[in-house]
Amino acid sequence: MKVNKIIYMLLAFFLGGLGVHKFYSNKRKLGILYFVFCWTGIPEIIGIVEAILTVFKKADSNGDITV
Predict the structure, then answer these.
(1) Which of 1, 37, 45, 55 is the 20 to 30 Å CA partner of 62?
(2) The pLDDT value given to residue 20
(3) How far apart, in whole angstroms, are the C-alpha atoms of residue 7 and residue 67?
(4) Burial of 34 (0-12, 13-18, 19+ CB in 10 A)
């Protein structure tokens, strides 16, 4: 699935604990899993790591990346 790099990175960093970036990338099952376990703090850590990794992904001419 192709998504906008900047939007995905910001969603992962700020709302990653709730799985919003997974819903944005059309990965609903993972989004629900992140949301269910948001109270543990683990999805937040994973979301921040995913945001950092997204910074280093190469975007196409439209600014999209494949996730």
Answers:
(1) 45
(2) 98
(3) 13
(4) buried
Determine the Cα–Cα distance for residues 14 and 6; give it in Å rounded to an integer. Answer: 12
Confidence of residue 38 (pLDDT cuts 50, 70, 90): very high
The rounded distance, in Å, linking the Cα atoms of 33 and 18 is 9
**DSSP β-bridge partners for residue 66:** 2
**CA separation for the pair 60, 63 (Å, rounded):** 5
Closest CA to 40 of 19, 58, 55, 23: 19
Q: Residue 41: exposed, middle, or buried by beta-carbon count in 10 A (0-12, 13-18, 19+)? A: exposed
What's this model's pTM, rounded to 2 decimal places?
0.93
